[in-house]
Amino acid sequence: MHELSIAKEIINTLNGLKKEYENKNIIKVVVQIGEMSAILPDSLEYNFNIVKEDTTFSNAKLELEIVPLKFKCNKCNEIFGFSENEFCCPKCNIIDYQITQGAELQIKEIEVE
Amino acid sequence: MSVITIERKILAKNDEIARQNRDYLKSKNIFTLNLMSSPGAGKTSILEKTLEFAQDKINFAVIEGDVQTDNDAQRIAKYGIPVIQIVTNGGCHLEANLVKNALENLSLEGVQILFIENVGNLVCPTSYDLGEDLKIIISSTTEGDDKPQKYPSAFLVSNVCLINKIDLNQHLDFNLEKFKSNAKKINPKIIFFELSAKTGEGFDGWISWLKEKISQ
Measured between CA atoms, how close is A70 to chain B, in angstroms? Predict the structure, then answer.
């Protein structure tokens, strides 16, 4: 539901990046979205394409990279994924973990010309 | 044509303002809680009951967040504590800068606990740090015991879960143990308080926890 705010924030960040990189034309932005970031990729793309009109980024393409959620078991160090909303280590069967990836919401790279 | 690696958080600006809020609240020795729930779970009713039972022992302040109206701030204002309403005008969550502006207009002299009541929504508020010490999720028995599986992010980021409307449990198919076990599967460290904002049942434990937090 907050994809519009996120799309606006991407444009704001691009404004800053344009200044940082000698006013070069940004033609693509690659955004990483973690599985746990509560962002719907289609909705973000839709909102970005609306927000970018009337800005200097109207020709910029948005590319989304979905980062799967991964956990590391605090007991046996096993790296495991997300299954049926249970965050349980498949090896030692306990729930004691750290999230190693999947919460990302970041601009990974830009393409300029 | 060239590719430049950036690796910059999209919410970096929000996170920076949240850090400023956190520093400011810490400098005033205020323990801050961000309350999240779906609409109608009873956030404001729980605050009212908490004030009724504990405002003679703890100095509270409240920031209310809603899409429209200042109804909730009016309910809290009856208790004579500092309260301010943020109206998001359609926005589905609070952001750190809205809280920063609210803090500038809120009298925090002597305040020990600040409650920030987020907009009723279990998705978007989970992404925005406001500068709180802890996040609290409020779930009610009428919402069903599969809430943790439906909204895992909200349970993952929360430290405490208040289970409200416990007085209605006998009329519902809500399985309390199943709810707790579902939540623990996502976040094994989450702690629960079962209560009813209607009858006052279960508030002793919740208020003792609040007192313990400010004495630490």
Answer: 13
Q: Which residues of A touch B10 (CB under 8 A)?
A: 6, 9-10, 13, 31, 105-107
* Chain A residue whose CA is closest to B153: A36
pLDDT tens by residue, chain B, 216 residues: 899 999 999 999 999 999 999 999 999 999 999 999 999 999 999 999 999 999 999 999 999 999 999 999 999 999 999 999 999 998 899 999 999 999 999 999 999 999 999 999 999 999 999 999 999 999 999 999 999 998 988 999 999 999 999 999 999 999 999 999 999 988 999 999 999 999 999 999 999 999 999 998
Query: How far from the centroid of its chain's Cα atoms is residue B130's Cα?
Result: 11
C-alpha to C-alpha distance for A104 and B12, rounded to whole angstroms: 12
H helices of B40-151, in order, are 43-54, 71-77, 96-104, 147-150
ipTM above 0.90, yes or no: no
**Residue B127 sits at the chain A interface (C-beta within 8 Å):** yes
Burial of B161 (0-12, 13-18, 19+ CB in 10 A): buried
**Tokens 């691009």 -> residue:** A14
One-letter identity of residue B154: A
What single-letter DSSP state applies at residue A83?
B
Interatomic CA distance for residues A65 and A41, integer angstroms? 9
Q: Which of A2, A32, A101, A106 to mutate to test the interface with B (most CBs of B within 10 A)?
A: A2
Cβ separation A2–B123 shorter than 8 A: yes
**CB B96, CB B90: distance < 8 Å:** no
What SS3 state is found at A94?
coil
B chain contacts of residue A87, beta-carbon cutoff 8 Å = 185-186
Rg (CA), chain B: 18
Q: How many CA atoms lie within 13 A of A71 on its CB side?
A: 24
